[in-house]
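hey so i finaly got around to running the thing on Enoyl-CoA delta isomerase 1, mitochondrial from Agrilus planipennis. pasting the sequence first so u can double check i didnt mess up the copy paste, my clipboard has been acting weird all day
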Amino acid sequence: MYSRTMLKVRTLSNNLKMYGSTSSNFVNVSVNDKSGVAIVTMQREPVNSLNLELITQLKTALSDLERNKCRGMILTSASKSVFSAGLDIMEMYKPNQERVRNFWLSLQDLWMTLYGCSYPSVAAINGHSPAGGCLLSMSCEYRIMLPNFTIGLNETKLGIIAPSWFVATMKNTIGFRKAEMALTLGFLFTTEEALKVGLIDEVASSKEDAIAKADKFIGQFAKIPPQPRTISKLMLRSKDIETLRKTKEQDLQAFLQVVNDPKTQKGLELYLESLKQRKA
Ligand SMILES: CCCCCCCCCC/C=C/CC(=O)SCCNC(=O)CCNC(=O)[C@H](O)C(C)(C)COP(=O)(O)OP(=O)(O)OC[C@H]1O[C@@H](n2cnc3c(N)ncnc32)[C@H](O)[C@@H]1OP(=O)(O)O
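ok and heres what it spat out for the 3d tokens, dont ask me to read them lol
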């Protein structure tokens, strides 16, 4: 069965310590001794919003799994209602320039690592998965979602534009026409709608069921030689990864320009207020 933290997630690297961050553990990795399949659980309460530390720890966990030649990886959340709320808006609101730069470069790195990993990857989406949460899900090879949640790239609804690699990932997942509709509307799909449009592959009745279904999906590769599998996957995915690798700095500058625009800062302030007011 799955033993907790068999693969230790390294705590924050030295370059993050200079921001005075504490080395909290936002990612748990457990590996099934028999199958060699790892469950990577995001555990940054309350909504797994992707801050620099969560992003860095996810990237480290995925790279460690690659080095340890894991048989497959299931990405999920410790929350009962949110897979991931996407990027942590606090990282972009009144940002420290060095930190926000690192934040974006780390996100690029995480995406390239997850999208191009050699092992089979499944998202067990056990909660809402907007924006960056949807990106993580789509970057896996297979998606299993629980009912009554939402998923999608809702950036345009927030008055912002999803970066080109978010767009490419969605286009590769559901096709041009459906991606165009979803992106321009900033559409958040319900679980049923996501299944219909092909944004997810299966619906599960519980987290346990999702993990069982993910194990079954990954199990299919036991009979497939790993190298041809990986090469085939990368033939489909490497063009978009290479595009970002080559334009990392340009993409960073475009992000910094948007984030540092006073209009964006005002928008972020209002959005943060609206998130808080929803509760009141
Ligand atoms: C507006 C962004 C401008 C960015 C400008 C730069 C442009 C380039 C970047 C483009 C890429 C963007 C990709 C992204 O991922 S942007 C983030 C988009 N995410 C969302 O819109 C999701 C927002 N959250 C929700 O809809 C809900 O929280 C939820 C996920 C459906 C969960 O709902 P639930 O009721 O369970 O929880 P609450 O809403 O009460 O939230 C609990 C607390 O968490 C805070 N919260 C929620 N989401 C975020 C977030 N993404 N970042 C930071 N904080 C978040 C929320 O305010 C509550 O805080 P509180 O307890 O202190 O009130």
